[in-house]
Structures are given as C-alpha cells and as structure tokens.
Amino acid sequence: MTYETVRGMRDFLPEDLARRRRIEDEARRLFRLYGYREIETPVVESYALLSAKAGEEIRHRMYEFKDLGGRRIALRPEMTASVARIVATKLRTEPKPLRLGYIANCFRYDNPQMGRYREFWQAGYELFGSTRPEADAEILAISHDLLQRLGLDFSIKLGHVGILRGVLSDEGVDEGNQNIVLGLIDRGRTRTALKTLKDLGVQELCLRKIRRLQKLKGSDTEAILAKGEEETRANEAAHTSLIELRDILGLTRSAGVTCQILVDLGFTRGLDYYTGMIFELYVTQMAIALGGGGRYDRLVELFGGEPTPAVGCSPGIDRIALAMEERGLFEGEGPPKELLIVPIGEAQSPIVFELARKLRDADIAVQVEVSSRGVRNALSYASELNFAGVLLIGPREAASGKATLRDLRSKVQTEVPFDEVVRAVKSLL
Ligand code: AMP
Q1: 8 found inside a domain
Q2: What is the pLDDT at residue 372?
C-alpha cells in the first residue's frame, strides 16, 4: 500500500517552499515598512466565530467537526474573524490605529483545480480604528506594493458594498436578505439575485437601477463615478458611499498606486462582514483573483469588542506564486551557493568539523560529507547539486596544514592554509 496526500492537500518540496518563502519574505518586509505587527492565531477556532459573518459560500466549504470534548469547531477558512476576535478581547485596550499582519494557512473544501486548493496560504494586513479613506488607501497601497515588488503586472478591481446595500435598504430589504442577494451576485448569479429581490417585493424601478449599476464598470473611473452619482442621487447612503469611493481612489493614486484600477459599482464579495470599500487583485493571465479585501466596520463589535472600524486585505500566496511562475519570475533562482567539505579517510573528520565550524561562524553555508564517499563520488554529487566549491582534506592536507579548495565553476584548484580558509571560501562564493 502506498500513501498519497489527501485530495486538495499539497506537499511543499524544497523548491516549492522556497518560492512560497520568497513571497512571504516580501510580505513581511511590508509589515515592517508599513508598521504592521505580526500575529499568529490557532488553525482551529469555534465554528460559531468562523461562521458568524463568513457568508454562505465560505460557510458551507468549512472543515467543520466536533472535537473529543464535543466542541463544535472548524479549520479557519480565512483570518479576519480570528484577528477581529483578538482585537475584541486581548488587544481591546491597545491604542488605535492598530495594525496587525499575518501569514497563515487556511482551509476551504473547494473543488481542487488550478489556483484552488483545500489548504492555501494568505498574507494579511488589518488596520483597526480608522473610518477614514486614508486607511482604505493604505490597504490598497500595501496590496499594490506586494505584487509590484514581486514583479507582477496586475490591476485592482474596486467597489463599495455601501452602494448596492444603500439602494436595497431604501427598498426595505433587510440585512439578511441583502447578504443572500450580494452572495448570489458574487457567484455570478445576478439573474437569480434579481428574481429573489422581485419575490421580496422590490419594485421594477429599483431592479432596473441595480441592473444599470452593474453595468457601471471600467478604467474610466471619473466617468463611471459621475454616472454612479447620477444613478444614486435619490439614495442617500448609496450616494455617500460613492463619494467615499471617489475619495479613496484619489488618495490611493496619491499614495503611489500606479497600476490599472477598474471601478465596478455592482461588485460584491463573498463575505458578509464587509461594510464599505471592497477590492480584488487580478493579473491578465488568470481569471481568479490573487487577493482581495475591504472595510468591515462592525465585526469587532459583533465579537463583543468596542465599536472599531477596520479595513484589511489578504493576498493569496499560492495564486501569487502561480502567476509568478507563469511569468517566469522564479527563473534563475536556485538555492544559495554552498560549499562541500570532504574528508579523505576517517582520520580527517575532526579537522573537517573544525573547519566547518569556522566557516559557519562566518555565516558561510557548508555541508560536510558524512558518508565517507571517495573524492570522485563526492565531486560528482557536488556538481549535480550545484555547489560552488569543494574543500578536500586528506592525509597530505592534514600534514601540510593546507586544504585543497576546488572551484566547481572554473575547475581551478588551490591550496589554502587552514587559517585562511574562511577568506578564500568567501571570495570563491
Ligand atoms: P477571500 O478570503 O475569499 O477574499 O480570498 C482571498 C484570497 O485568498 C483569494 O484572492 C485567493 O488568492 C486566496 N484563496 C481563497 N481561496 C483559495 C483556495 N481555495 N485556494 C487558493 N487560494 C485561495
């Protein structure tokens, strides 16, 4: 019998993991540059917390089960609920604005396919304590910086849930039904969404307005916002949301976001907790979003905390890696150059260990030949694995106090006194 990974789960072999780490390193660099402090939370949380505002689509894809104590728990499908829980409890009295970051694995029982896995990784940036468009613009700028620093060519799709919600509220559609309708639109089922509204008694005039708003999208942001303003003139909350969206857009441009921004006034996202600006990140070669985020001003309060406005984003590491791969952005990257030290004969092992320690103390990566292979085999192993050089220590070297250093690129061999090995290896690497 042979065992394989469970469907939808992946192993990360050294090269795969190196790629993921490269993205995580960049995400962490941005934590520092923007002042986000990193946190970790448990993979397992109570089902009640994770499902409270997850939205129907994500809720029914959760890995949910009872632990041996009978608690109803689930594997986190995303991180925002956990971070909001912390802000509602342990960091309740922390000075605001509060900036928290994370890199975390999440689980969703999605249908496995290109860019869709059952365990995937998200980086995240959550900014608590500001209702201002400056906060929204910061989150958009961070999302932009991450993808730009990784070399991707991308666009931002930008909307505001307050527009559709405002129009629906004016028609007397309650929040629960709004969530159902926005969820349907998010899954591309606009016709069913409109039918649902009709069944709820929403007038034809309003349905037409929603259809028109759905068509207001594109990169000519000024024209679209102007038309949206016309369209929502009679809906105060929707109109205010539009003005807010315009402010956010302006500030985002001032913050140096140069990529294409597509405003989409009929855009919704699959999570119920959004209350304001929402966005997704796209590259031309992929139909699914690389990341997304938005404003969620009521979640902390819902979890028992002080009323705390919040905005955040979660770039998806797996899809970023896929996009980078397709663009060839990982090419030419290999493991860091290393040195192999080979004792010729067991008697040399103590000298080899001593030299290895000196080199590592100088921050040089060294592998020691531990299987008493002959020189020829050791050299071919080192070439195959792309080592930069090999240091040979045989009886002759031990007697003369000079190691033989072989540069595997130039194939040149030199004799190096033991106390000069660090300097010589440094210049070889
Ligand atoms: P969401 O929490 O749904 O807004 O997702 C944010 C990001 O997480 C998405 O844009 C994806 O990059 C990533 N993501 C969500 N679900 C999956 C999945 N099943 N597999 C891989 N990445 C995912």
Answers
A1: no
A2: 85
Q: What is the pTM assigned to this prediction?
A: 0.93
414 alpha carbon to ligand 1 midpoint, in Å? 53
For residue 292, the model assigns a pLDDT of 97
The predicted pLDDT at position 390 comes to 96
Substitution site in 318, 320, 322, 324 for ligand 1 pocket (most atoms within 8 Å of beta carbon): 318
Residue ending a domain, among 298, 326, 354, is 326
Residues 101, 124 contacting (CB under 8 angstroms): yes
In this prediction, residue 346 carries a pLDDT of 85
Which of 111, 319, 322, 324 for a ligand 1 pocket mutation test, highest count of atoms within 8 Å of Cβ?
319
pLDDT tens digits, residue range 238-259? 999 999 999 999 999 999 999 9
pLDDT of residue 298: 95
Amino acid at 182: L
Residue type, 269: R
Q: What is the CATH number of the domain that holds 222?
A: 3.30.930.10
Q: For the chain, list residues with pLDDT below 70.
A: none
Mutation to probe ligand 1, out of 24, 120, 281, 317 (largest number of atoms < 8 A from CB)? 120
d(CA 7, CA 5): 6
What pLDDT was estimated at residue 204?
A: 94
Report the pocket of ligand 1 as residue ranges, CB < 6 Å. 78, 108, 110, 115-117, 120, 122, 270, 289-292, 314, 316, 318-319
Domain of 372? 339-428
Whether cis (ω within 30° of 0) applies to the bond prior to 335 is no
The answer to whether residues 212 and 261 belong to one domain is yes
pLDDT at 332: 79
**319: CA distance to ligand 1 center in Å?**
8
For 24-27, the CB contacts below 8 A with 24+ separation are 24/103, 24/121, 24/123, 24/317, 26/146, 26/149, 26/150, 27/101, 27/103, 27/123, 27/146, 27/315, 27/317
For residue 119, report the distance from its CA to the centre of ligand 1, in Å: 10
Residue corresponding to tokens 């919600």: 165
Query: Which pLDDT score, from 0 to 100, does residue 56 have?
Result: 84
Residue 64 maps to a domain: yes
